[in-house]
Design a protein that fits this description.
The chain has 386 residues and is α/β, with parallel strands linked by helices. 44% of the residues lie in helices and 16% in strands.
Length: 386
């Protein structure tokens, strides 16, 4: 059975890591031929293309497949994808991300592909954008849903949001958590030499955040409560892992708020280097307003680090209130301050929540389980369509 995955671009990000892990894992399954099609990757977010570039015949780049709306390039990308599907004749096309999800599914239908899947890694519409953009994306998703055999969602919240928007039918959705290699996080330690590299002492309470430095990721809210947190617990340091277009803005805000000695920017970090950084954190905060199920949450929990998150999209499916961490209403700055300060001052609480979180993640988020679940879904859909 030939399967072609399609994604808009291979930047450093959760959806991209998920897709690459899925493709590489599925290639090990007997009877499957799996390849990947993507648009070009460029920009400050970094690239994951090197993770698949050394495997022959795995990755095909379609130059016209770009993230911004561009009618002419979008038409050319749709036409090129249609040509590729007709040439390769996959039995399944499995799309990821917004632009590739729309164009890839429509091209697959045009090429006569019998089974068309789409993974919803995060919402393409919602309160994070204006009415016109929401109307456009909802219409596009409803149109593409008409040719979609099945949806994979990384969180139950995605299913509910899409059904509420009139996209798909209840029986078309299967939740498969976004798995990742657990061992590097399970074995991560509080490496004092690595702490020292970033100017952190053994006694510092390190609040970590792993996210692109851009809008909707919640850095503004964290920096807003940071001065009061530091006054309440001077040992607090903030480790911001990632890079992005808003780095200069956040660095200016750090200087303006007098936080230079308390905030560390790591810059862009390759996925393989994330587990050691999680190991030197005491807890992780995730305040994104748009994400299917933030990958940083189960990664921190695998390292037995408690989490604090906004109750947005699928965060509540990993951040369990007072079990693995604390869940807050988006924008609740007093609550954010109170929970972070409480965790910073209570090592026993951090240990209890982290231990519970590790057990929770070990049962649900292994990459092997994700690949197995996808494989079984493919076989089930193939049997139905036969």
């Amino acid at each position: 059975m030939r399967v072609t995955h399609v994604i808009t671009r291979l930047i450093v990000g959760g959806a991209q890591e998920n897709t690459i892990a899925s493709v590489r894992g599925l290639r090990e399954k007997p009877g499957l031929e799996v390849d990947l099609v993507a648009g070009p990757t460029h920009g400050p977010e970094g690239s994951l293309e090197s993770l698949v570039a050394d495997e022959p015949h795995l990755l095909t780049i379609v130059p016209q497949l770009v993230r911004p709306l561009h009618p002419w390039r979008d038409y050319l990308a749709w036409r090129r994808l249609t040509e590729l599907f007709r040439e390769r004749r996959p039995e399944i096309v499995h799309t990821h991300s917004g632009k590739a999800g729309i164009l890839g599914r429509l091209a697959a239908a045009r090429a006569g592909v019998p089974i068309i899947l789409h993974t919803i890694h995060g919402p393409s519409f919602g309160p994070f954008q204006d009415f016109l953009a929401n109307a456009l994306f909802r219409a596009a998703e409803r149109h593409a849903a008409q040719v979609t055999t099945h949806f994979v969602v990384v969180a139950e919240a995605m299913k509910q949001q899409y059904l509420a928007a009139g996209v798909g039918r209840s029986g078309q959705f299967t939740r498969i958590f976004s798995g990742f290699p657990l061992e590097p996080f399970l074995s991560s330690t509080n490496d004092l030499q690595l702490r020292a590299k970033f100017g952190l002492t053994p006694d510092d309470i390190v609040i970590g955040k792993i996210a692109r430095l851009f809008k909707l990721k919640g850095h503004d809210d964290l920096l807003a409560v940071a001065p009061k947190l530091v006054r309440g617990c001077p040992r607090i340091k903030f480790l911001l892992v990632g890079d992005g277009p808003w780095r200069g803005r956040f660095e200016h805000e750090v200087r303006t708020r007098g936080l230079v000695k308390h905030v560390v920017f790591t810059g862009l970090v390759a996925p393989a280097n994330v587990p050691p950084l999680v190991g030197i954190m005491d807890l992780l905060v995730h305040l994104s307003l748009r994400e299917g199920l933030p990958r940083a949450l189960p990664q921190a929990l695998a390292a037995a680090r408690p989490v604090v998150a906004y109750d947005a999209d699928g965060a509540r499916e990993a951040c369990l209130e007072n079990e693995t961490g604390f869940l807050l209403r988006p924008g609740d700055l007093p609550g954010l301050h109170e929970r972070l300060l409480r965790l910073a001052k209570d090592a026993a609480l951090r240990e209890r929540l982290g231990r519970c979180g590790r057990q929770f993640v070990q049962q649900r988020f292994g990459v092997e389980r994700m690949v197995d679940d996808l494989h079984q879904l493919y076989l089930r859909l193939r049997a139905i369509s036969a």
